[in-house]
Amino acid sequence: MIIFYFCCFVYEKKTVVKIKMAQVPVYGLASHARKVCSLYKKALRNLEMYYDRRHVYRYQAVLMRERFDQNAKIRDMRKATELLKAGEEELFLIQHPIPKKFTYSPGGVAFEREVEPPDWVLDYWHPLEKAEYPEYFKRREERKKQFIEMWEKEYGKEDPKSAHH
């Protein structure tokens, strides 16, 4: 998200900025506490899949919370890491065979179902439709020309003999 915004900003200002590797945000690293919280949430979601009665699920969730609270005061990081790995392995072994996936989450039935029309669709708008947004289409035409100039500068002009399909 940060990188996408940065690239758009650079495009608007027409400047070139080189990014060093140290400036790229790292999303894979998480603290031990974050991993434990994630494991706890996954364990509760797994319990939700197994128990359809709310009162039974809540009872099992309280028991699960008790298991996590028993190890909350451990300060030895080696032991805590071993417990975390054991918990992740246990969760993997008892995971539900048909996991519940939320509709708009990755893996859900409606994830990324919104079709975004390609840019060329705007070229086929009627002139009266384009007249409703004059500033946008003026800026769009300027950017299309800039893109063509940038393309020709980087890759050269197209050979007219090879312009067919």
TrEMBL record:
Subcellular location field: Mitochondrion inner membrane
A GO biological process held by the record: mitochondrial electron transport, NADH to ubiquinone
InterPro entries membership: Complex1_LYR_dom (IPR008011), Complex1_LYR_NDUFB9_LYRM3 (IPR045292), NDUFB9 (IPR033034)
Pfam families membership: Complex1_LYR
CDD domains noted in UniProt: Complex1_LYR_NDUFB9_LYRM3
Keywords: Acetylation, Electron transport, Membrane, Mitochondrion, Mitochondrion inner membrane, Phosphoprotein, Respiratory chain, Transport
Domain Complex 1 LYR protein: 34-91
Keyword Nucleotide-binding assigned: no
Membrane topology of this protein: Peripheral membrane protein
A GO cellular-component term linked to this record: mitochondrial inner membrane
Principal place of residence: mitochondrion
Family statement: Belongs to the complex I LYR family.
The protein's role, per its UniProt record: Accessory subunit of the mitochondrial membrane respiratory chain NADH dehydrogenase (Complex I), that is believed to be not involved in catalysis. Complex I functions in the transfer of electrons from NADH to the respiratory chain. The immediate electron acceptor for the enzyme is believed to be ubiquinone.
Subunit and partners: Mammalian complex I is composed of 45 different subunits.
PANTHER family xref list: NADH DEHYDROGENASE [UBIQUINONE] 1 BETA SUBCOMPLEX SUBUNIT 9, NADH-UBIQUINONE OXIDOREDUCTASE B22 SUBUNIT
Name by which UniProt lists this protein: NADH dehydrogenase [ubiquinone] 1 beta subcomplex subunit 9
Organism of provenance: Plutella xylostella
Classification lineage: Eukaryota, Metazoa, Ecdysozoa, Arthropoda, Hexapoda
